[in-house]
Amino acid sequence: MRVALDVPLAGPFDYRVPESLEAIKGQRVLVPFGRRELIGIVLDTIESPSYPEEQVKDILMVLDDLPPLRQDWLDFGQFAASYYHRPVGEVLLPAMPSALRKPGSYTGKLSKGGPVARLDRKKKKTRVPEPPEDRMHELNPEQQQAVDTVQSLKGFKTVLLHGVTGSGKTEVYLHLALDALTKGKQVLFLVPEINLTPQFEQALLARFQQVVGLEGLAVLHSGLAEGERLKAWVAIQRGQVRIVLGTRMAIFAPLQEAGLIIVDEEHDASYKQQEGLRYSARDLAIWRAHQLDIPVVLGSATPSLESWQHARLGRYLKLTLSKRAKTTYMPAIKLVDTKQIKLEQGFAPVVLHAIRERLARGEQSLVFLNRRGYAPVIHCASCGWMSQCPRCSVYTVMHRMPGHGNVLQCHHCGYYGRVPVKCPDCGNQDLEMLGRGTQRVEEFLQAAFPQACVERIDADSTRLKGSARQLFDRVHSGEIDILVGTQMVAKGHDFRKLGLVCVLNADAMLFSSDFRAPEKLFAQLAQVSGRAGRHVAGGEVLIQTAYPEQAVYQALIQHDYDTFANASLEERKITHLPPFSYQVLISAQAKTVNEAMQFLLEARQLLASQPQLAGFQAVINMYDPVPLRIVRVAHVERAQLLVESASRPVLQAFLGHWLPLVQEIGKRHRIRYFIEVDPLEI
Ligand code: ADP
Ligand code: ZN
Ligand code: ZN
């Protein structure tokens, strides 16, 4: 039989089933592998060993504690493996919770006494949902139209729900979900951020608890404890779950009778896994829906240009929610030109004034700054020394650590160091902190508005499990007056009392070399702006910038995504960039950037030198390999090679021929590298 194993070899692997055992497709089996024992998944029961009979080993045990994984799930994993060019075992096994794939995390036969059975006997935790704050809303005409259209679809269709922030996309999702549930189908609901799951969990439970029961909803994300994830997964695999809510990993949920997939904030980069299998859960959702012949709804106020282009071509069905559901007004977005004015601790006077006014009115303000820590770098004005990470080619960031004083921290490798009392190079005792991060802004605002409750939400303030949820609850309850935050606060949240949004360092992204930077900036600013005035009239957004004339800002103040997207697509078309081409990135890591570059150069040369690749020369474009912008992280130096084609199938076919040759070179150079299909960051 053929078995998928989580090892970095092509696989699948051949094993024999001894007389005493019986195994069927989709079951987990324990097998010997080298000197280890591993859990694998049976992909095929045919006896067709590709090497001599006597070398084929017996499987040791069949784990029949769960129903076998379904064929469609196996096919889905196999598709992902082939599309992203990874061994199938490295896709299928990591998709499962670790207790189901790590030998030793169980004892003996599992069907009765194993961890899964034990888990079932454990007293079920009672979840106390918040009282349903919003009942089913009566849909407005645009929402109704969207719901009707999707409900009338037969089979597979990708729907792009383009709805401005606050237009009630959630309400549309919920109506569609109810429709699927009442037809006896399951719903898969993907959200980009762990922190958005509680909000949706509450909304789903409030609406559907009567329909599906408390246990009919399973939540899957990487913030769960192993046991919680196992419990959710097992319940899904046993067919006890009607709604799966989760982040990108939930796309691998073993659904049985899905009727609808929803991808909220489909443009969000969090749908892209950045290690191991570098998949896009949004793209896989479309493939999965196609496989299951069901609709998939991609929702966003700022769709990715890829999705927008598909909609323009009519491949996706575009539905529009053009108005806000509650206040009907979009917040007024204003640009605060910082070129001519003196800033106070990074704030323009009008911005501080606006915060003060909101405070007086009892409304909340959000200060958005995508930079955590206290100061991005420490600097010596007399000799030019800067706080550089000893392991990476970046500066260390100063953080105030309660109880530890000030530390320098590297955001790339995790290095911690003391803040020197004097300059290590010249002895100057007057070291300066340059720039500001969320901590410093929080400190300043608390000093400037002593009567206000100021809080900060970023990766640092929410490190402890559950603390993010507590902080968000305090924002929702209205206790917090001024919220300082990174992108963590920008997405999806429906804060009721929030009237004002202030954006501090938007320009940082303006001159990035990444061709997607303007698209990302527009999306991010539209998202964070969309938090303002969702329930209160007179919502306002103030964006501080030294470049107010930039197209991206001009489109933002007009709330004109369409014009911005269409113009951006014209540029992409002229420059042959995605979505008008398809890309693959090979990133190599070595002791020195020269070794990495050498490997990539050899990989690149294959196209010209190998006769079997000759046919691709006209249809594949390879850029020159380049060192990464941040070339060194944790003593490892990095370079990358970008490969491009106007055709996705051509690119895939080329990879099929080229990557095995690249692997040979990689072995010879003993180099670590990885492949990223459809990279989002270049
Ligand atoms: P978004 O499109 O940004 O996801 P939401 O779904 O969060 O917007 O909706 C914004 C607010 O409008 C929510 O508080 C929601 O309860 C409310 N809402 C949605 N639809 C309606 C409706 N038809 N009538 C009244 N309020 C609605
Ligand atoms: Zn110095
Ligand atoms: Zn570092």
TrEMBL record:
Signal peptide: none annotated. Zn(2+) 1 binds at C380, C383, C423, C426. Keywords: ATP-binding, DNA replication, DNA-binding, Helicase, Hydrolase, Isomerase, Metal-binding, Nucleotide-binding, Primosome, Zinc. Residues 104-142 are annotated as: Disordered. NCBIfam families: priA, PRK05580.1-4. One of its GO terms (molecular function) is hydrolase activity. Component of the replication restart primosome. Belongs to the helicase family. PriA subfamily. It catalyses: Couples ATP hydrolysis with the unwinding of duplex DNA by translocating in the 3'-5' direction; ATP + H2O = ADP + phosphate + H(+). Residues 150-321 form the Helicase ATP-binding domain. PROSITE patterns: HELICASE_ATP_BIND_1 (PS51192). This is Replication restart protein PriA. Initiates the restart of stalled replication forks, which reloads the replicative helicase on sites other than the origin of replication. Recognizes and binds to abandoned replication forks and remodels them to uncover a helicase loading site. Promotes assembly of the primosome at these replication forks. InterPro entries: DEAD/DEAH_box_helicase_dom (IPR011545), Helicase_ATP-bd (IPR014001), Helicase_C-like (IPR001650), PriA (IPR005259), PriA_3primeBD (IPR041222), PriA_C (IPR041236). Binds 2 zinc ions per subunit. Residues 127-140 have a biased composition (Basic and acidic residues). It comes from the Bacteria. Its EC number is 5.6.2.4. Zn(2+) 2 binds at C389, C392, C410, C413. It is an enzyme of class 5 (isomerase).
